[in-house]
TrEMBL record:
Region span, Disordered: 359-389
Pfam families assigned: AMP-binding
InterPro entries: AMP-dep_synth/lig_dom, ANL_N_sf
Name the UniProt record assigns to this protein: AMP-binding protein
Organism annotation: Paraburkholderia agricolaris
Residue span, AMP-dependent synthetase/ligase domain: 13-128
Superkingdom, taxonomy of origin: Bacteria
Length: 389
């Protein structure tokens, strides 16, 4: 008798841990060195964190706010909240105070994760919030009674700690201010994330042997749709850079096979390419320019590949990339021509969402159900859409 197919992100996490326990699931860089966690390590850590959250009162339907850049602790804790039937709400850590206040007032989460002392202090200004402190520098525990150290949160329970997540539960929620200054949110249930991840994996031919790079803002909905959910379902390796300042060097070192970014991401990388090229009158510049304009015969194309395009792909960390995704609006003409000359096929995927106005003081203990949601569009059928961020 075969088991039913996993239907939530925690279910898929357990599936990976059972079938590929020793394969590397997650890598993060600290002080210049890469540290790896297997699928068994990740599943065990998430289960123990979920038990710790439950011990502190986190229950099904509760919201966990994550004020953090991309980092493994935020990812594991978001999965732990979902393990308990809760929703993870990533926020941009650079969010201004006048925006953070209405978010906390209207979303009314009971728990939050902060990546450093400055974020802990910002969150402590709001009553009724328990704060999980990442404490990345291993300092003395924060003295405030509502602060919980991340490293002390995990709890191991005899017999394990079963997940209560259901397919219709919201896994992630994302919030922003609209043009009129109203707080709006987009909620992504497990069922939708699983369905979209399966479609993405089939279209982009993702496998457990792929290597992905998580350098985009953790607070972007596309991070959940195009990296986190596909990672759990496909079982590839997910890598976190040491910081946003080192992301280009870290990507070049890893040479990921899956890259997901916005048009601004690719424009910034294109500028790195442009900076590496010699002066406008040089033969190398003229050769790549002819390739961008699709000029020249087989000899010109071969020379531009071996002498310029191939080395430049290695410089920007795209030497092995077979799935290059631009989320939201497609590349501008100049950037698209450059990546085409580098023989990187950048495919556009949508970043639209069902944004709904947040009502003040919504009760976090009653999760919002969205019975109808739109499926992921095939990039070949995508119509022009406005970016969500």
């Amino acid at each position: 008798m075969t088991n039913a197919q996993p239907s939530t992100l925690p279910d898929w996490l357990r599936h990976q841990a059972q079938h590929r326990p020793h394969a590397v699931a997650l890598r993060h860089k600290r002080l210049g060195a890469w540290h790896a966690l297997s699928w068994q390590d990740v599943a065990t850590a998430v289960e123990h964190l979920a038990a710790g959250l439950a011990q502190h009162g986190f229950a099904a339907g509760d919201a966990l706010l994550l004020v953090s850049h991309p980092r493994e602790e935020a990812l594991l804790l978001s999965l732990a909240a979902q393990w308990n039937g809760g929703v993870a709400i990533p926020l941009d850590p650079q969010l201004a105070g006048d925006t953070l206040r209405p978010v906390l007032a209207q979303i009314a989460p009971r728990f939050a994760f902060a990546e450093d002392d400055s974020q802990v202090d910002r969150l402590l200004a709001h009553e009724g919030l328990r704060v999980v402190d990442a404490n990345p520098r291993n300092l003395a525990p924060h003295p405030h009674p509502v602060v919980i150290g991340y490293r002390t949160l995990a709890v191991q329970r005899e017999g394990g700690f079963a997940s209560v997540a259901q397919p219709h539960d919201d896994a992630f929620a994302f919030v922003r201010l609209d043009a009129d200054g109203h707080l709006v949110e987009q909620r992504l249930p497990h069922a939708r994330l699983v369905r979209e991840a399966q479609q993405l994996a089939a279209t982009e031919k993702l496998s457990p042997y792929d290597e992905a790079f998580a350098a985009r803002a953790f607070a972007a909905a596309s991070q959940a749709r195009y990296l986190i959910a596909p990672w759990v379902l496909s079982g590839f390796r997910l890598n976190f850079p040491e910081s946003l300042a080192t992301r280009d060097n870290d990507r070049r070192e890893l040479a990921p096979t899956l890259v997901a970014g916005t048009r601004e991401t690719y424009a910034r990388v294109a500028q790195l390419v442009d900076d590496r090229l010699p002066a406008a009158r040089s033969w190398r510049r003229r050769l790549i320019s002819r390739a961008q304009r699709r000029q020249g015969g087989p000899l010109v194309r071969a020379l531009s590949w071996w002498l310029i395009a191939r080395p430049l792909r290695a410089v920007i960390g795209f030497s092995r990339t077979h799935a290059a995704l631009v989320i939201g609006p497609p590349l501008d003409e100049k950037t698209a021509a450059l990546f085409e000359a580098l023989r990187v096929d950048v495919r556009a995927w949508p970043d639209a969402g069902d944004w709904r106005r947040v009502e003040p003081r919504r009760q976090a203990a009653v999760p919002q159900r969205h019975a109808a949601d739109s499926g992921l569009q095939d990039p070949t059928q995508q119509s022009a859409q406005q970016p969500a961020y």
